């Protein structure tokens, strides 16, 4: 097992699963943000029932299982066995849902069929060097297929590869994973440089106080 997988297993054990229902009483739903019942939903992907969609860094699979319930061929990939165990315990019987344990770039390079949309919610897009992941995603998207991802916006002045810490026991050093933070206009430029079209990046404001850090949402077409 890689250090990255061990770090994300540690993270998984500290994170609760999704609530049983949302504010509308739904048992499955899509959320691009880390705030409850906030922001846009599945419409950002521009896909319908029958579409083949991939979640990079699906975690406990709340979002990708929702797409399966909408009749999509829904595939989630994650490097963490602990995340996927929780995902299978809750959503494993969902028709149309496939879950794979793999590193995102390796998974894309081995995939044979193209996807109609590929997305990532605070997932592998944030934690993988975009110089490796953007070409791998584009290679596996159908023409006009969408890449959409969300993550925390950058801290002003802190751009490019950053260290992110995952706490372990009181007497242990934290695990370290890398993440890539850029301003919206830098994401748009990077996507264009990798051959994507219609790249758009914006920061969705947080819900009213006390939270103030919003959500960076980026989308583009192959
Ligand atoms: C912050 S969690 C977010 C999980 C989920 N998308 C959500 O919104 O709850 C990040 C997830 O990305 C996964 N991940 C990070 N880097 C990855 C990579 N290179 N390949 C596959 N999964 C990765 C981690 O294992 C973890 O489950």
TrEMBL record:
Q: Name one GO biological process term.
A: methylation
Pfam families the UniProt entry points to: Methyltransf_11 (PF08241)
Give a yes or no for keyword Plastid in this entry.
no
Instruction: Fetch the CDD domains from UniProt.
Output: AdoMet_MTases
Q: Does the keyword Hydrolase apply?
A: no
What InterPro entries does the entry give?
Answer: Methyltransf_11, SAM-dependent_MTases_sf
One example GO MF annotation: methyltransferase activity
Alphabetical UniProt keywords? Methyltransferase, Transferase
- Residues forming the Methyltransferase type domain are 54-149
What name does the UniProt record give this protein?
A: Class I SAM-dependent methyltransferase
The source organism is Streptomyces chiangmaiensis
